[in-house]
Design goal:
Length: about 270
């Protein structure tokens, strides 16, 4: 009787919610891959010793690597992309030029993307670019300081530098004696800081703020040493298994949110 009473108290929403939570765990563990024929594949061609397969359920092409499990195969969305990947694995990159402290190479495939390498470590320090000039500009901005504005005063120059891009962008001020300010996120903050440093220095020197004051801008890379932090080389190209894990996380998240929502709605209705 108690068991029947407890079962009768479970509403449809609550039962469906718990069922979806079970599906959440099941899909997160990759269970849906086997039910949905995720791993079904058929060979399309052999290119330079590598077999290329098509996975119809996820609409990608996988490159079979004999010593690796199928979950670790690299993939691409098209056959040309797979061939280009294989070309990159087998052929040496094309040396383009030495640029500042780095070496620029071109991928040995139809895409011909450019990238930069640190010659001392042999590590790739940029993403790939389809334009050489854009890559060089990226190196200038990310790895070397730019002179943004110079404030000329009687007792020396105050220089505002910029380095980095996007989230890594920062500005700082260099005083005539070589002293450096803290880092700032925006040019306006760095400019205000420079004016405050000048004001304090002129108070000490007994000078007039407006006496001999001129500004000059320059968007040119300054010669200097490259910074240590910058682009981090990403992990190898996503594998078939990585794609499964991404999809499993997405699907399980949807099931989980809906399941918890149904249980919460049922609990609210019971309280009323």
């Amino acid at each position: 009787m108690n068991l029947q009473s407890n079962l009768s108290q479970i509403s449809t929403k609550q039962a469906l919610g718990y069922f979806l939570l079970v599906l959440t765990i099941f899909s997160y563990m990759g269970g849906l891959a086997w039910i949905s024929a995720y791993w079904d594949h058929n060979q399309i061609e052999e290119y330079r010793g590598y077999e290329i397969y098509f996975f119809p359920e996820i609409n990608v092409y996988g490159i079979a690597i004999n010593e690796l499990d199928i979950t670790d195969w690299s993939f691409n969305t098209g056959m040309p992309g797979c061939r280009n990947m294989i070309d990159t694995w087998l052929d040496d990159p094309i040396h383009i030029s030495d640029y500042r402290d780095y070496v620029i190479y071109q991928q040995p495939n139809d895409y011909g993307f450019y990238y930069a390498v640190d010659p001392e470590t042999g590590e790739q320090i940029t993403t790939t670019w389809n334009n050489l000039e854009d890559l060089q500009d990226y190196i200038d901005q990310v790895y070397y300081p730019y002179v943004v504005l110079t404030k000329h005063r009687d007792f020396g120059d105050y220089v505002i530098y910029r380095q980095g891009q996007n989230a890594e962008l920062r500005y700082w001020v260099e005083s005539p004696d070589g002293g450096l300010s803290q880092l700032y996120r925006t040019f306006d903050d760095a400019n205000d800081a420079a004016d405050e440093i000048i004001r304090l220095d002129e108070l000490v020197a007994g000078s007039n703020l407006d006496n001999g004051s001129t500004n000059s801008g320059a968007i040119e890379p300054d010669v200097g040493s490259p910074i240590e932090d910058g682009y981090e080389v990403p992990e190898d190209i996503d594998t078939i298994g990585d794609r499964l894990r991404q999809r499993s996380i997405l699907i399980s998240s949807v099931f989980g949110v809906i399941g918890v929502g149904l249980i919460a709605i049922d609990a609210g209705e019971r309280r009323r």
